[in-house]
Amino acid sequence: MAKSIFERLSGEYEQQEDYLIPRLTVPAEEEHSIGIWGQQHLDYLKQCHKFLKDFTIRIAADAIRCSLSLWTSRKSHFGKDVFFRQVKLNIFLSFVLIQCHV
């Protein structure tokens, strides 16, 4: 009998009664640091959108907190990118202005 894709990818089965059930595992989640921009956005959410905080407390699910952390982490990286682009532009413009005045 030909192996299934699951078996070719080192998957294992467990027999329960007459059925073969695949033994599945969930990979460990990566840690995401949210940085200063993410922390500022998280503070904003806590202050201005209290319903989100109340909602996460009511649900009490790690998945929601994790997704909020991941979302603020992505916002943090976006904020850093915007900041560094602005710094590069300011350096370039100041260099151009210095060259024009010389």
The biggest beta sheet reads: 2 strands, antiparallel
Query: What is the terminal-to-terminal distance?
Result: 81 Å
Rounded Rg: 25 Å
Strand order of the largest sheet: 1-2
Helix percent reads 55-70%
* Morphology: elongated
Overall mean pLDDT stands at: 70
Low-confidence stretches: none
Write down the oligomeric state.
single chain
So how many helices? 4
Percentage of residues in DSSP E strands: 5-15%
The SSE order reads HEEHHH
What is the β-strand count? 2
Key features of this structure:
102 residues; mainly alpha; 10% strand
Describe the structure.
There is one protein chain. The chain is mainly alpha-helical and 102 residues long. The protein has a domain at 31-101. Helix content is 67%, strand content 10%. It is built from 4 helices and 2 strands, in the order αββααα. Strands 1-2 form a two-stranded antiparallel ribbon. A hairpin with a 2-residue loop joins strand 1 and strand 2. Helix 2 packs across helix 4 (62-101).
